[in-house]
Design a protein that fits this description.
The structure holds two protein chains of two kinds. Chain A is of the alpha+beta class. Chain A has four domains: 64 residues, no CATH class; 210 residues, no CATH class; 165 residues, no CATH class; 195 residues, no CATH class. Helix content of chain A is 51%, strand content 15%. In chain A, the strands form three sheets. In chain A, strands 14, 15, 16, 17, 18, 19, 20 and 21 form an eight-stranded mixed beta sheet that branches. A six-stranded mixed β-barrel of chain A has the order 3-4-9-6-8-7. Chain A is globular, with a radius of gyration of 36 Å. About 1% of the residues of chain A have low confidence. By secondary structure, chain B is mainly α. Chain B is globular.
Chain lengths: 865, 118
């Protein structure tokens, strides 16, 4: 019997209250009539009967409530719109933020057992770089001595000119050792990957294509295997194609092809010749910490064996996930917090709206309660209303999130091996669904409880003042105060980021970026092994480009600033005491004469490099001001000698500093060498390949003419990376501007929601106090005093909420400290600005209600009594 | 809203029609309705208690039946129970439903699905 009584709880309380007694009695009678053998039959049929009917009764009520809701929303479209918009903004922001956090931080990386995969670097922490390239010799020693890895491979970047049919193309790829693909454990779509058998130098040259390149070059034709590809003039046989969802963990640019990395004895001879990155798969049961400890031990032994080269070289072992920068992590979490803040503000606002509505409906509810509607039914109806509104908002929110994803994802520059844009998979949808449901309950529960308490006989009393004064009013004040606090936090965070962005954008890069076109013509080897051929190509292009109309400067350089952040070379000062404990470096750049004038880098002292600086004349160098400050502070550098780029050179000039590594990082000293004074051993990597052209008009307009010139000089030479220098500099701050925009949008949404909240609160309070205000005015209160009474109320809310918000914003600022370059987390300008904006908004939102209060006609107001 | 037309509730759910038929003869309490329906249909239709009260609730809202204040003859009265009776509107709806069903049977006869003359 007790079991049946339990079963009855499946019915809504109202139904149970009405018919529970009879149901129980019927059940008892049937049980007694059935006798022992029939008990089970009665029991089963009662179970079935209860389950189906309870569900149907619930659906009946839901249908009634929804019908009632639709009717009442149609009567109050403003309320419906505001509520749905608030819910949409809250759930949309949170869903989008979750999608990105999930995409970057949570979802497993697309490899089998990704937790066993690590990346390896040389650790040069004493110079502030924990992820330095590895030399082949050091890598070989690591691999031979370590026992933690099932597979341990190395790779390095590869850029090759593809010639043959069509226009020559520049392709980016990776040279991988045979262990890389087995370590990753990803099978190819077609054919095979590069394997250990390809490591030997006498093996045929083979290439594995990415899915994208396979589509581009062969239109996805499966007969590609065995075809020949001409890379830098050398034939490679296509042996495999990777699938569309394979992402190589090698950062950007995403590789289009892979060839076998093969090392010569010469590669192993110099431990400072670092150009490799390592990828390892840990043996089962070996932890990342274990592998890290082992490699550090090996690195420590090597630095004792080779004190000159490896004195301060350790080993870095990182999981793939740790490749995300700490700043990126901070930004992601800040995004999540900001979206939660928006969600809480939206919920608060909705709770407030519903509360006002419930209070306004007190009479109606009290009448319905008196007519027999149970409280449970009224609470349930209120919750149905809020959940329904939440779902309507959630649907729009999902749409918003979907639309904003491509923008949001640029927030965190990531080199993780994952797709560029996250997809909204069923997990995200489930998250959004759960979030919406919780949101609906969260903002519905307070008004619902209020309804529960409010349906006493007092509600029907004539002239009862729905909810003004007393606890409901103070609850609403707290809600609005919380909204204002949340607003301040968001505004301050966004403000700090805006200030940091402005600070960075104001940084002088050291050159004029406007009216500059850049492009790359990477000369392939062995075709351009011969320096004469190389110089011939360069001067032909430069001479032809100078003839173009509107061109005021043309020059070649190894790498333009910010395009390649690295390219440093050890410095030895002639006569100086060599310190074995630290490596001294400077950026190495070969330039053609006129480079400084083209870039408008000021020449501070001495002369530019010239066409007269040839292999036959004394080797010279132009150094940056930072170089002078670092090596010869307070002295005249001209005519001093340095050993740099494999040769003794005399300093002939000094130029201004340039931000080689981007706007945020200041650069190491730089040395510019004449392009003809090229010495063996420097390697083709530093050969001039970036062309800079200064024009009087639109720089991009000249691109076709430059392509034509290159084609005329060498018909199979590729042209790549055509872009303006302006866009290169803008790209530097792109992630930051996105951060600012996103947080800014969040802050504006929060501000709007808070304004709606304040406006709603005061409008409601004033309409409920019409009579009181009427009496005051009849007794001689001036209009001014009525306005100030209303404004004082909102100002009080703004101050209390604002102070709480400022306290929280201090915490938020501290959290963001690592991405606030050049701005204090407690920046007073931002704090004052944000608080001021919130105050103004609060006052503006209360103006309309205040004016309405002033227009109250005492005679009319009193007659209503 | 004006008084609803009886036709607006058609077709009736089978359970509702059976309940109307039972109440058309006498006011009954819930358990008696179940027994009456079972007897009337020769045991064919056995209303579950949940189905019964759910349907009763709906029919009360629709005004097809009502709770009766006056109790039946004392010897039949089970005083802890609630008695239900049919309303004038309920009678009209039951008639309309019967007409609808008769019409359907006529159509079925005409097409030879059921023996007899249309």
């Amino acid at each position: 019997m007790w079991f049946y009584a339990m079963l009855l709880h499946l019915y809504p309380a109202s139904f149970r209250g009405e018919y529970g007694e009879e149901l129980r009695r019927d059940f008892a009678r049937r049980m007694s009539q059935a006798g022992a053998p029939g008990v089970l039959v009665v029991f089963t049929s009662a179970l079935w009967d209860t389950l189906t009917n309870a569900l149907l009764v619930h659906l009946d009520i839901l249908r009634q409530d929804v019908r009632y809701l639709a009717r009442s929303l149609r009567k109050a479209p403003g309320f419906a719109f505001t509520a749905i918009a608030a819910a949409a903004l809250g759930t949309g922001a949170t869903t989008a933020a979750f999608t990105i956090v999930d995409h970057i931080l949570i979802r497993p990386l697309p490899f089998p057992e990704p937790d066993r995969l690590v990346k390896l670097y040389e650790d040069h922490s004493n110079r502030g770089i924990a992820d330095f390239d590895i030399s082949p010799a050091t890598f070989r020693d690591w691999k031979n001595a370590s026992t933690s890895f099932e597979h341990l491979g190395a790779y390095h970047g590869l850029s090759a000119n593809l010639s043959g049919e069509g226009e020559p193309q520049r392709l980016d790829g990776k040279n991988v050792s045979g262990d890389i693909f087995p370590a990753l454990g990803v099978a190819p779509l077609l054919g095979r990957t590069i394997g250990p058998e390809d490591d030997a130098a006498n093996r045929p040259d083979v290439v594995v294509l990415s899915y994208g390149l396979w589509q581009d070059l062969y239109a996805g034709n499966p007969a590609v295997l065995g075809q020949k590809l001409l890379l830098d003039g050398k034939p490679y046989t296509v042996v495999g194609v990777m699938g569309p969802n394979f992402y190589f963990p090698g950062g950007s640019p995403r590789p289009q092809l892979w060839t076998a990395a093969r090392f010569t004895t010469e590669d192993y001879s110099d431990r400072m010749n670092t150009f490799l990155y390592g990828i390892g798969r840990l043996k089962p049961g070996v932890s990342v910490e274990g592998a890290r400890a082992e490699l550090r031990g090996i690195a420590a032994r090597l630095s004792r064996e080779f004190p000159k080269e490896l004195a301060h070289t350790g080993a870095t072992v990182r999981t793939f996930r740790e490749e995300l920068s700490p700043q990126g992590r901070v930004m992601l979490k800040a995004l999540l917090w900001a979206s939660l803040c928006v969600l809480v503000i939206a919920c608060t606002n909705l709770a407030n709206l519903l509360l006002a509505r419930a209070l306004g409906r007190r009479k109606e509810l009290a009448v319905r309660a008196a007519l027999g509607a149970g409280r449970e039914r009224l609470v349930r109806q209120t919750l149905t209303e809020s959940v329904f509104l939440a779902f309507a908002g959630g649907a729009f929110g999902l749409l918003l999130a979907r639309i904003s994803l491509p923008l949001l994802v640029r927030l965190v520059p990531t080199s993780l091996p994952i797709p560029q844009t996250p997809s909204m998979d069923p997990r995200v949808l489930a998250f959004a669904l759960a979030l919406t449901f919780v949101t609906g309950l969260a903002f519905g529960v307070v008004p619902a409880l209020r309804v529960c308490r409010g349906t006493d006989a007092n509600g029907m009393r004539e002239g009862s003042r729905g909810g003004v004064g007393g606890r409901s009013e103070s609850l609403r004040r707290v809600l609005v105060g919380a909204e204002i606090g949340g607003c301040v936090v968001l505004l301050v965070s966004a403000g700090l980021l805006v200030r940091a962005l402005a600070q960075i954008q104001a940084v002088d890069p050291g050159f004029r970026a406007d009216h500059l076109l850049t492009l790359r013509t990477a000369l392939p080897l062995p075709k351009y092994d011969d320096l004469t051929a190389q110089n011939q190509f360069i001067s032909s292009v430069l001479n032809a480009a100078r003839q173009l109309p509107g061109v005021t400067g043309v020059a070649y350089i190894s790498f333009l600033p910010m395009i390649n952040h690295g390219g440093v070379w050890p410095v030895h000062i002639a006569g100086g005491v060599e310190e074995p404990t630290s490596r001294r470096n400077a950026h190495l750049r070969y330039v053609t004469p006129g480079y400084f004038q083209t870039m408008q880098i000021p020449l501070k002292l001495g002369r530019d490099v010239s066409e007269g600086d040839t292999p036959q004349t004394p080797f010279v160098a132009v150094v940056s001001e930072a170089f002078v400050r670092f090596y010869w502070p307070g002295q005249d550098p001209v005519s001093r000698h340095i050993d740099f780029g494999g040769h003794d050179r005399m300093v002939v000039g000094v130029v201004g500093d340039v931000r080689m590594r981007g706007l945020v990082q200041s650069s190491e000293p730089a040395v510019y060498l004449p392009y003809r004074q090229h010495k063996d051993g420097v390697g083709p990597w530093y050969a001039p390949k970036d062309l800079a052209v200064r024009t009087t008009g639109d720089p991009l307009a000249i691109a076709p003419a430059l392509r034509r010139i290159v084609h005329e000089v060498d018909p199979v030479q590729s042209v790549s990376d055509v872009q303006t220098m302006d866009s290169v500099v803008t790209h530097e701050t792109e992630a930051r501007s996105v951060q600012v925009r996103v947080l800014g949008v969040f802050a504006v949404i929060a501000l709007l929601l808070a304004a709606v909240g304040i406006h709603g609160l005061l409008s409601f309070a004033i309409s409920a106090r019409t009579q009181e205000i009427g009496v005051r005015m009849a007794l001689g209160a001036s209009r001014g005093s009525v306005v100030s009474m209303v404004l004082a109320e909102s100002a009080l809310l703004a101050v209390v909420g604002g102070v709480a918000g400022i306290a929280l914003a201090f915490g938020a600022g501290r959290y963001l400290a690592s991405i606030l370059v050049g701005i204090q987390p407690s920046d007073p300008v931002t704090f004052f600005g944000a608080s001021g904006v919130v105050m103004l908004t609060a006052v503006a939102a209360s103006l309309v209600p205040a004016l309405r209060a002033v227009r109250i006609d005492p005679a009319v107001a009193l007659r209503g009594e | 809203m004006g008084a609803p037309q009886p036709e607006s509730l058609l077709p009736l759910q089978a359970a509702a029609f059976h309940i109307l038929l039972a109440l058309a003869e006498a006011d009954l309490h819930g358990y008696a309705i179940i027994q009456d329906v079972a007897a009337r249909t020769g045991g064919e239709v056995k209303l579950g208690a949940g189905t019964l009260y759910r349907t009763i609730q709906r029919m009360l809202e629709q005004g097809l039946i009502e709770e009766r204040r006056e109790r039946p003859a004392p010897e039949d009265d089970d005083e802890r129970r609630r008695y239900y009776g049919i309303t004038a509107f309920g009678l009209a709806v039951a008639r309309a439903e019967a007409r609808r069903l008769a019409q359907l049977v006529k159509l079925a006869k005409a097409s030879g699905l059921v023996p007899g003359r249309a």
